[in-house]
Specification:
The structure is a homodimer of 406-residue chains. Chain A has 406 residues and is of the alpha/beta class. Chain A has three domains: 151 residues, Rossmann fold; 164 residues, Dihydrodipicolinate Reductase, domain 2 (2-Layer Sandwich); 63 residues, 2-Layer Sandwich (Alpha-Beta Plaits), CATH 3.30.70. Chain A has 14 helices and 15 strands. Chain A has a six-stranded parallel sheet, with helices on both faces. The longest helix of chain A has 17 residues. Chain A starts with a strand and ends in a 5-residue tail after the last strand. Chains A and B meet through α2, α6, β11 and α12 of A and α2, α6, β11 and α12 of B.
């Protein structure tokens, strides 16, 4: 084996970046890939008073860009800019880039993959979805021998923790959120998590992977968990189910994709109902494989960093092997199908009377729990028809879909 | 992209082999790898009266070995011989081989991987563990950036189906087995499954992957599920747990591995308790990643065949890239630790009285269900000490360990 020293740069010395540094420092890779990995640069605009990393620190991106010894960089700075510009310039110089930056991959993934391809470099982003869970890589492989028909994932650990506390400990949403913040699972400004935007970007990446076409995250209807209450918990427990924030995508018969991020009712017999705490899980359905589930820690310094390091190692084995890249086509036709056409079962909560509800929806199943409101299940109805019906119902609180991938 | 035609041979036209043929015939791969795949030979000693495959059929292995156009062969014939000899000769000629043959990988894996490495070829075996579930490939990647500390897997669908029927439908072992046979989930001679040998070979492969050293399956203490009765089900349900046939391996502080295949009590809060029917799941614990679980169909024609095809595609991208190979070292020191030293919690069933049991084991917890026998939990005891204690107890029925990976 030709052992060589791979010199890398870490761009952004935050939580993930410092984790990447620690793993590379503490673990010897020579036995497994034949290549030693060394961190030559750490790029950050901040000052760090740490003698160990001082020799590597730079505030000047050009140091990395213009150093011919550096073949691989880890972009773990987050945000769109300057992450996009840095990544683009590195790839144009034929340097490979690995990243945990889901926002960048979801927004500029196609362009950056194309740039990588053109310049014989790699752009890899295992850490951008599911933290440390290997999902991008196995999905790349699965999609080769399978046609993916559906994806359903618990893609955000913060919201899963909050929902879990509501179900397991009877906390209301605000208490559960405060608890998540106290434990460091939720940020001070939790909007990106609790409103579903984080999960939406990850679903866009998975869908683009699955079908090889750009899925724009702005096209995915997204709702968060902020209006889930302990009353919802009581209804859903009566159905032997739980509520999970589900990123969902399914290809329909016309080759378009029903996609959404929303709190859904997950029946107890579905393995996703057992994904607790801050864990994530992604279910993929392939035409030959059936259902696969990947489960693990979806966030956190070292799990995410270890996925970044795995990508660095993979790059080091494939320098110049452009065949290894994923390709997403740009397409003019919208790949996202009209959500109104999707058939699903819904639990509806409202303040109307049974007679009026039955007049609108016909044969439904009531779920009696509280005296001051009415809840019912409407089975196998198109979302468009449901919404039209709800307009004729008084005091609609909300409707939750039931996860049942067929 | 340089598109080229990859010509392959399928050796063995049984269930998996015919699945591999169908997937390659029905799916176009050109868009994803740039390579078209074509089946040039199908090797089988049997005659097939099928016009479609006739042009490819051969009974002569030399046809494949001596055809310079064939770079990749799928060995899906099963058994040790002549699968070993064929694989070895192909690798020596620099042809890559992919396989679903767990027996061959568990027995000759190290030697065949070394032969591949020496001859710039690849030997891949994703389909040998977990059928269609991608576990070998993600494990290869995980192990690079992590030290694996433990593996626990439901590695055999037949036994999982039987245990599931016993728990969910109250069938006794023989009825559940007969049902599995009627449904085609168990073979007429089910010994390899129900006595744990199939799971043992898969655990040996996973352990060799995890720690890079040959784990000989003969060194793994293995017991099957034939003596699990509905009485065990009743006790274990009282503990809010289930029984699963678990392939278990954990590295101890001295760098040795506790490994076993046995029916274990899996607490309801462990996600493995929710793996039902013929599904498989593998849990891997990494020092950075924490717990990962891969879940899916562990057997079946098309799931397994799609894993074989994925390996063929991976080979086609890496022809000549020997760095892609896995290496298992041969080691003189035994890597398997003395099972008697492992600390675990056990449920014991016997026909002795409480007083005598407490005299032997001290502080224990009784699990009262039946009048004509006594069951109790002994917590955190070394297996050697448990066994010594059981010799002093009358009428021991059996002891089941509790899965609790720490």
């Amino acid at each position: 084996m030709n052992e060589k020293m791979i010199k890398t740069a870490i761009m952004g010395f935050g939580t993930v970046g410092s984790g990447v540094y620690e793993i590379i420092r503490d673990k010897s890779f020579a036995g497994e890939t034949g290549d030693e990995i060394e961190v030559k640069y750490i790029l950050d605009i901040r000052d760090f008073d740490d003698d160990e990393i001082k020799p590597m620190l730079t505030k000047n991106f050009e140091d990395i860009l213009n150093d011919d010894e550096v073949n691989i960089a880890a972009e773990v700075m987050g945000g769109l800019h300057p992450a996009y510009e840095f990544t683009k310039q590195l790839l144009e110089k034929g340097k490979s880039v690995v990243t945990s930056n889901k926002e960048l991959v979801a927004t500029y993934g196609r362009e950056l993959l194309e740039t990588a391809q053109k310049n014989n470099a790699l752009y890899m982003f295992e850490a951008s979805v599911g933290g440390g869970i290997p999902v991008i890589r196995p999905m790349t492989v699965c999609t080769k021998a399978n046609n993916i028909t559906a994806i359903a994932g618990i893609l955000n650990g913060t919201t899963n923790y909050i929902l879990n506390e509501m179900f397991k400990k009877g906390k209301d949403f605000n208490d559960a959120l405060a608890d998540a913040q106290a434990k460091g699972y939720a940020e001070k400004n939790p909007a990106a998590d609790i409103e579903g935007h984080d999960a939406c970007r990850k679903l866009a990446i998975l869908s683009s992977m699955a079908w090889g076409k750009v899925v724009n995250y702005n096209d995915i209807p997204t709702s968060g968990i902020t209006d889930i209450s302990l009353r919802d918990v009581a209804y859903v427990e009566k159905l032997s189910s739980v509520i999970k924030l589900i990123g969902y995508a399914m290809m329909n018969d016309e080759g378009k994709v029903y996609a959404s991020v929303s709190p859904m009712i997950v029946p107890g017999e579905n393995i996703l109902s057992d994904v607790n705490g801050v864990f994530n899980a992604v279910m993929i359905r392939g035409n030959y494989l059936g259902d696969l589930v990947f489960y693990g820690k979806g966030a956190g310094k070292l799990p995410t960093a270890s996925a970044v390091v795995a990508d660095i190692l993979d790059c080091s084995r494939h320098i110049g092997a452009k065949k290894h890249n994923i390709i997403w086509e740009e397409t003019d036709e919208k790949i996202i199908a009209d959500a109104n056409e999707q058939t699903m079962t819904f639990l509806v909560r409202c303040r109307d009377n049974a007679q009026n509800i039955e007049k609108v929806f016909g044969d439904i199943e009531f779920v009696p729990v509280y005296d001051d409101e009415t809840a019912f299940l409407v089975k196998d109805i198109k979302r468009g028809r449901l919404n039209a019906g709800l307009e004729k119902i008084n005091g609609v609180i909300h409707a939750l879909g039931v996860l049942d991938i067929r």
